[in-house]
Amino acid sequence: MKKLILLSxxxxxxxxxxxxxxxxxxxxxxxMKYVTMPEEYEEKQKEIAKQEQAxxxxxxxxxxxxxxxxxxxxxxxxxxxxxxxxxxxxxxxPAFGSRTKSREPKFEFHGYIQPCLRMGSGESxxxxxxxxxxxxxxxxxxxxxxxxxxxxxxxxxxxxxxYGNEVVKATAMIGAWSTTEGxxxxxxxxxxxxxxFTDVFLTYTPDLAPISLKINAGVFPDRYGFMSKYHQxxxxxxxxxxxxxxxxxxxxxxPFVGDWEVIFEGGxxxxxxxxxxPLQGANEHAQSMQGSTFAGHGHMAVHFAKYFTPAVHFIYxxxxxxxxxxxxxxxTPQNETQERKDGSLRILAGDLRIDMRQFGYLYTGLSxxxxxxxNSLTDLVKVLNTGSGKDFxxxxxxxxxxxxxxxxxxxxxxxxxxxxxxxxxxxFDGVGPDLTVxxxxxxxxxxxxADDFDNKNMMKYxxxxxxxxxxxxxxxxxxxxVMPDFEDKYESFEVFSPxxxxxxxxxxxxxxxxxxxxxxxxxxxxxxxxxxxxSTNSTNPDHHMVAVYGTIWW
Length: 554
Prior knowledge:
By secondary structure, the protein is mainly beta.
């Protein structure tokens, strides 16, 4: 054995090693075939990525709009969607909130800006002189009241920053509903209009196929009952309710055999520390009787055949706090030192979305709001763009109710594109003449401990036409009829609003709108104030409004 090993070593030593220099140098083609992928590789990878995305629910490679353009619509509106939507009908919704289609982290920058100039015109009740108001004093122009029509264009600027990949993404948003330069020109400054970082949150979407899971955590809005496909609808408000503050919300989608799936969503939210004393106007009217407020919410939807999506909603807001009123004032009959009762607000709702493709899109919903001692709640939950605490009580149940009552709401909105309908089955992507028609309505009924607000019925309805007759010019017309109280027909009013829209193309992301609105008001119509731009009530509303505003999103 030792001799064999010794012989092998001698042979290896004697035999010449192969010369590297003697070997031929490989050609460039031979080298490149090992470092360059075949021509069909890139196309194959694109097809694989497309199939993966289709499995996640996206049905278009570059939809150009919407939060995600999901085959399965979300139960709630994307928290990254614009707070205020474009008042020009027919405009495509911004792509805020779309899921990142990349395994590598990337930075995204989105925005939505709508500056505007408005002017209301009326007559002085004393001498009949024509009056002009930079902030139109018009019926239905104030946020938070049932009669709000969303026909007055609102200034808004929103910037969204996000960084992450398809699994986790961080989002920070900056917004303002009035700009400092405009405030200074009017001799005033509204600190609460400059909102700086309105929302900061993380979105976690792990790949758990075939199920889908999404978790939002941080400070962001949850909005339920949005009446349009991609935004809050013609009235700019959610039918069910909006939940603000800090917290966490999770969404779970479970596919089943056949073309249907079940969606569950729920979360819990609270707020940051409250002011210890009332600072009227300095921090959006903090009140000493409002304690720390929390809200839990749960939702369930069933998505049938990519067309029908019925859903149920439950929201419960409460305050368990030991705050008391200020010291007893001798000049008032009530005892201000008494301890406030804990408040609560419960919302039960159901809605239905029907995507009829070329035959249009239908939303309908029913919501019931019940409050107990809601003066003790903050505005963590908002209904019809008003907070669930003191403001909501005064708007719908009356101050004498002490925050006890119910509000039942029914809403419906239907929209159809005649261009899509008449061109079917050929796909129409908006490049060409089109006429879109929207009809919408909300009805309300209240029960309250205050006699003036008990068994009160209210209704508003309208229609909007958008005619895109040219690549660069379009026209729109909107009509609204509002009845704040069935018992008093003299509180009703109508709004007629023609518009001219200038743009750079059929599917432009920017527009310049010229709008005129005529308000036909009965003799008992009053303009209600809010805590934003309109700050005073008026029994002498303007009858004319002219507005020029531009909108751009990216």
